[in-house]
Design brief:
Layout (H helix, E strand, L loop, with lengths): L47 H25 L3 H4 L12 H11 L2 H32 L5 H10 L9 H11 L6 H4 L6 H14 L2 H9 L4 H30 L2 H6 L8 H6 L10 H32 L5
Helix pairs in contact: 1-13, 3-13, 4-8, 4-10, 8-10, 9-10, 10-13
């Protein structure tokens, strides 16, 4: 009987050597050669360069205010001399008293507070209502009306001075505070600002759910729109208040220093002498007009920033 030959066996491939056993890293440590993501909630500490840049920015920002205080504590002749003084003098209280009494700074401060508060409150209210209408209420001609509102921002305010002055003259409002308040009850910038904010921050589902629950328009605005728009309202109110406080062009035309002036109008007649202007007294009046704004930011800055942070939406 013939013997069959077995087929040749294929050679086995050599076994690969196993790498040495690596111990697992301890919890919380990163593996070598891999990028790690920062853990959630971990605080990132700024480096020394960041603090140096912040310190330089703070010094540059505060130097004009510091030099205003320095100039208000010297005489007018010393302020205009070269080199300018860099250290406080001894005439601060004397200059403050003279500037306060020369143009009745107390009445001007009260008038400016009334004008700025009314203008800021009315602008925030009307801009929020108009911004909500442009953002969430469907009606014919919405895009055209919004374009017209934005287009008014390109018109220089100097073009409306003559017709506006004729209107307040016919109404008998010359040298009265309402001549400054009423033309500034609403601003196109405020309407556009609130519209852009409410488009993203206010979901349409909230408005529709409120309507399905039987809420009327005023209740929707009070309970839905205002809480959502509160951060933007705070920012807009702050911007408008500062702008109205520092406004000079139209109040200088509508008001007079001898009647019911605002601070900026009162400063226009401050420090004027027979043949020269005392720059130290003028800078002292500027310091007086700046201090209320600094106090407002000091007391309300945290609330404004907190409102902006509370309105942030995490995607």
């Amino acid at each position: 009987m013939a013997r069959t030959l077995d087929p040749p066996r294929r050679p086995r491939p050599p076994r690969r050597s196993r790498p040495p056993h690596r111990s697992r890293p301890a919890p919380g440590t990163a593996r070598p050669g891999r990028r790690t993501r920062p853990a959630a909630g971990r605080q990132h500490h700024a480096g020394p360069l960041t603090y140096v840049l912040l310190a330089v920015a703070a010094v540059v920002s505060l130097f004009p205010l510091y030099w205003n205080v320095v100039a208000a504590s010297h005489t007018g002749e010393r302020v205009v001399e070269a080199p300018a003084p860099l250290l406080p003098g001894s005439r601060l209280l004397e200059n403050l008293t003279f500037a306060w009494n020369q143009v009745d700074m107390g009445e001007a401060l009260v008038n400016t507070t009334i004008v700025a508060s009314l203008v800021a409150a009315s602008t925030v209210l009307f801009s929020t209502l108009a911004g909500f209408a442009f953002a969430k209420l469907p009606f014919r001609g919405r895009g055209l009306l919004l374009s017209l509102v934005v287009a008014t921002m390109t018109i220089p305010p100097q073009l409306s001075v003559i017709p506006l002055y004729r209107i307040i003259t016919d109404l008998g409002w010359v040298d009265q505070l309402q001549s400054v308040v009423l033309p500034s009850l609403v601003a196109a910038f405020g309407v556009f600002f609130m519209r852009q904010y409410l488009v993203e921050a206010l979901p349409v589902e909230l408005v529709e759910a409120a309507r399905m629950d039987g809420a009327h328009s005023l209740r929707i605005i009070w309970h839905v729109v205002f809480p959502v728009a509160r951060p933007a309202m705070a920012v807009l109110g702050m911007l408008v208040f500062v702008q109205a406080w520092n406004d000079f062009f139209w109040p200088f035309i509508a008001l007079t220093p001898d009647g019911s002036p605002t601070l900026q109008v009162a400063l226009a007649g401050l420090g004027a002498g027979n043949h020269s202007v005392d720059h130290a007294i003028v800078l002292t009046g500027a310091l007086i007009s700046t201090m209320p704004l600094l106090l407002v930011f000091a007391f309300l800055g945290k609330h404004i920033v907190g409102g902006i942070t509370a309105g942030a939406v995490k995607s």
